[in-house]
Amino acid sequence: MFDKTEMIVLCGGTGIGYVCSQLVHTSGSLERSATNAKHSRKTHIAIKYAHEFDRDFPGSKIHWVNAQSAVQFELSYRFIAGALNLSDTGNGVIESVHHHLRRDCAGRWLMVLDGLCEGSDLMATSGSHEGQSLLKFVPKCHNGKVLATTRSRALANRLARQQDSNVIDVPALEDGDAARLLLGSVVEDAAKLRSAALVAKELGHSPVALTLAGAFFDTVKKMPLGRYLSMITSQQHTSSQGTKEEVGVRRAWQPLYDDLNKKYPETARLMLLVGDLDLQSIPTSFVAEATADKDVERHIRILVQYGLVEPFVNRTAICVTDMVRQRVREWLVEHNQKPVYEEKVLSLMSAAYPAPEAEEHARCEVLHPCVMAILQLPLPAAVEAKRDRATLLFKVARYLLHLGQHKPAIRYLRDCLGLGIEDPEGVQSVIDEAQAVMDQAAAGETGHQPSSSTVSRRPSLPSAVASLFRATPDASPTEHTHGWAEMYNLAVEQAKRNLHRQAETHYLAAFQAAARLFGSDGYVTLQILGSLAVTKCSLGHAEEGRSILEFVLARQRDTLGPNHPETLVTRHNLALVLQMIGQLDIAGAELQHVLDLRIQLLGRSSPATTQALEHLIWNCQARGMLENAEALRTAALQSRDQNAMVVYGETPPALQKLSRGM
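-> structure tokens emitted (662 positions)
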């Protein structure tokens, strides 16, 4: 499967273990640092290796892919595509990432496939690759390396193509390491070490179970180890079925959850709600919807204290490990609460997911994996719950139609009708419209014609843009589907080297080729046009560049929505052009708006947010607003990353923390 890229697989379920020299040069320091982590040993080894890789290959890129499910895999690739400024080539961002990383210009990179599961259905959920294995899109090239983590030895062997040297087993925890996880420090007292070893044995030497037990000792002070041992071994209703690790997590969970429920019942209910979803990363915005008092920071802080979740550094999501989620679902079944909580989470998401007319497409994208997990829950029995599911299906379908994914959208709309709920939203008419688009595409037509209301909102073609269609570039792309991409990539590299005249030539050739393939309103076409406008400004043609950017911004607002990352890039660039031609006040207001949206959508630590903040500082200085500039500079320094390593994808919280020296 991976005939060019080296594939190394970490396999096992419980241990800190060892790493061979081909992975990490300092395996001893790895073992010491690993005992302080609250997550999978395999994941921690992968995190450590990412740091070693970044140290050995300065300027390399780390791509982290959550491979526990297809939806999370696809979301990780979308994050990677956004961070690398890749556009959809017409076959989806999965293909864009795959195509880019196979090229030499991508540089040295490491991809971590974290949490691969035996039997997991990693099939593309939409687009032209729907139904194909996503592992097919793990790149193969000489300048990249892939590191996968899995519990399954059989899957590890298949991934490594039966090369045992590339499969690294992660053995069980030793007693000293277990005691450190349990008690939070090195244990030198022999009697205490023996007691800790007995507890570790009853907990199956599971790092997750020991972490939960350690959190219990942190919250319930001065409990002797012997008493805790009696507590977990005398549980009446804990099943002994499953692996030692699963039994250990059950035993450690019960006293911890009982204490949480006694002291913080609302937080305990929140844990059951988010833990019931088969999803590792839960958006904080959705967690906030699930809290009655809306004090989401307090609830997350308590759950972190109890070792049940881990927050992302930028506070946009929380991480719930699969073992904790499994125990939550078991607990709900044991207490006959699972249907109740499934209906609760369905109701919450039905209300939280943006309505089609809101055009909050960025929020839809953030919530999409969460929605997919909710829609995988069993069909509800209650009429009101069926209505909530129908509403959610309709909203998701409209979002997919916006993305041009008509086939899955129709499937969701038909599922909506299949629930037997009345059709107040006009679901059938939407199905008919989407089907017509698919029929036109299949017949070789140009696609669905926009409604008159949409046409009326679009600006007429400005002369600066119209002239680009008639211009004859000095370069022309090769005659194949991705010829525009060759011209575009060449122009990007030339612009980086300040060769703006050459870049203008190749941007123009790429624009004309993309317009023929994707139309003048195509995602790729508008992206290239925006880059061409910036290049014209660099050549001193600010007014021409401004006219083009205004056109691109209007079309992107129409097709992508006002808060889409590409729309914000164009708005940011237009603000800089306005600043260039002396309209400082208008530029400042635009930069402030872009900054506010990026903080809301991407978090303060995002490079795009930092860039908007720096440009706003310059604007304030140019306008003589020195106090404002100083306040913004202080905020920038506080949020600046202290480590040069850049990780792309849905990065695990622990790697985010490590990369910042925390």
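Residues 77 and 309 are 24 Å apart (CA to CA).
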